[in-house]
Amino acid sequence: MPSTLLSRRALLRYGLAGGALALAGGGWMAARRWRGRYEVRAVRTMMNSDVSILAVADSPDHGHRAIAAAFDRMAQAATALNRFDPDSAVGRLNRHGHLAEPPQDLLTVLARARQVSEQSGGAFDITVQPLMAYYFSLPRPVDLNRLDRQAVAARDRLVDYRKVRVDGGGVHLDEAGMGITLDGIAKGYIVDLGADQLLAHGIDEAVIDAGGDVRTLSRGPSGRTWTIGIADPIDQSKLFASVPMRNGALSTSGNYEIFFSADKRLFHIVDPHTGLSPDMYSSVTILAERNIDSDAFGTALFPLPLARIGEVMRPDGPQWLAIDWNGRRSWQSADMPVSAKHSA
């Protein structure tokens, strides 16, 4: 059973030398023979990331068509869920406080987000947008000693996932000044849509890499195992560990991705209960069946102490790996299949 080692972002560097190249769908595609079939790869920029799809197909044309369909469906959802676009569904909801005719993609993500919020005791909360907007507005690097704690507290009072209401009239934000960000769940959902399209087009072996959210398919005759590397949070040029995968979803969140203060104590994940970033972990990785869950729980676990993680995460649900703030120690669920730890 062959195995391929890929880091979280390695598909963007994955060499497919010796094949035919064609420009299609906004990214270069490459195809090469592999065990009597063809590996086809394409890269497209969406969701502020380079998204790479590698598909094993019966012919180059088959792979091209399947990948194009996957990207088209992903782009459709990304357009609706993009908080940075004032004309998107999320942009209009944040601007007006209500949305009369929400698209199904938004309703699906809102429903799952609420379930994760309830399961995590509010550690995951899409209504942290007022806090995120405030932090993004500050000059960088932010000096935490001079941070306006009253301004943070005022915005934190608007954070409450229970005040996002969905009914026959649409989606409502029940308090003026509220806003939502789906940054901690939408990318995973969008990756799932891409994988669903690949399967619908007859692709049984594939990897989608969306910059921290990875989806693998291995239902073909080769039985290939994809070994996905987890970046060392202290030195992202190195691997901390690797995880063997066949059919699954892996998401990693880290304090090194987007940070506001020079010491990374204030970064793109905030504890909804304090309005500030948690400081227990530098990286959290989740393995699940679908990326909507691996993405959301990767955010939800950051504010939780280890004992609480054990209570929140069901043994038969997503598996997890948490790396401490200094990048030296790690903890994991009993069934997290970490095949190797490359540093400690």
Automatic annotation (TrEMBL):
<dbReference type="InterPro" id="IPR003374">
    <property type="entry name" value="ApbE-like_sf"/>
</dbReference>
<keyword id="KW-0449">Lipoprotein</keyword>
<dbReference type="InterPro" id="IPR024932">
    <property type="entry name" value="ApbE"/>
</dbReference>
<dbReference type="GO" id="GO:0016740">
    <property type="term" value="F:transferase activity"/>
</dbReference>
<keyword id="KW-0472">Membrane</keyword>
<feature type="transmembrane region" description="Helical">
    <location>
        <begin position="12"/>
        <end position="31"/>
    </location>
</feature>
<keyword id="KW-0808">Transferase</keyword>
<dbReference type="GO" id="GO:0046872">
    <property type="term" value="F:metal ion binding"/>
</dbReference>
<dbReference type="InterPro" id="IPR006311">
    <property type="entry name" value="TAT_signal"/>
</dbReference>
<keyword id="KW-0812">Transmembrane</keyword>
<keyword id="KW-0274">FAD</keyword>
<keyword id="KW-0460">Magnesium</keyword>
<keyword id="KW-1133">Transmembrane helix</keyword>
<keyword id="KW-0479">Metal-binding</keyword>
<dbReference type="Pfam" id="PF02424">
    <property type="entry name" value="ApbE"/>
</dbReference>
<protein>
    <recommendedName>
        <fullName>FAD:protein FMN transferase</fullName>
        <ecNumber>2.7.1.180</ecNumber>
    </recommendedName>
</protein>
<keyword id="KW-0285">Flavoprotein</keyword>
